[in-house]
Amino acid sequence: MSGFVAVSEWDAHYAAGRNFRPVMSEEQTVFERHVGTGDGLSALDVGCGTGEFAAYLNERGYNVLGVDYAEKAVSLARSRYQGTSGLSFQCWNAEGEEWATLPVYDVISSRLSYTFIQEKGEFLKMVRDHLAPGGSFHVMTPHADRVPPGRRSTGITAAEIDELCHGWTTVKEYDLDAHHVCYTLTL
Q1: pLDDT band at 1 (very low <50, low <70, confident <90, very high)
Q2: DSSP string for 19-78
Q3: This model's pTM is above 0.90
């Protein structure tokens, strides 16, 4: 399990101008192959950071709400994508009560953020409860056993992979590179 990262640490990360891995063409290809274009469908991007994947989803035709725990990240995303139709951002805790205010979505994504969820079982319940019938949960994450020893906390363990993949109608897995894997899980 990953270590807890306080919101103040995330805010400092983004305030220092640091970001995460850009959305690569191979990742886009995997998403389009396993999930497809939006054509007006809804998407929730959990742990959206500065909004790059949320913007990608929007470009693919989804109406997207990007959410992140770090207010600085959400502020940067709002500024960067201000005026983009069908794309909005909110600051909230993915493990908090905010889920109660949300509708169902056709797609929920968690790109490079699932590993930081502390209560994964409860989070997965919330994801399932907020997916439309036939909806997809798209996760891109490092595997703990594939990253260097000093960075193992940035990936998910074998037990966490089993928990993630349990109980879905279909599970598709695709290796992006030596460290990162995409999962598309469908109700």
Answers
A1: very low
A2: ------HHHHHHHHHHT---TT-EEEEET-TTSHHHHHHHHTT-EEEEEES-HHHHHHHH
A3: yes
Contacts of 160 (CB under 8 A, 6+ apart): 1, 115, 120
Strand 131-142 vs strand 180-186: parallel, antiparallel, or unpaired?
A: antiparallel
User: For the segment 131-183, what is each residue's pLDDT rounded down to a tens digit?
Assistant: 999 999 999 999 999 999 888 888 999 999 999 999 999 999 999 999 999 99
- Say how far apart CA 113 and CA 155 lie, in whole Å: 10
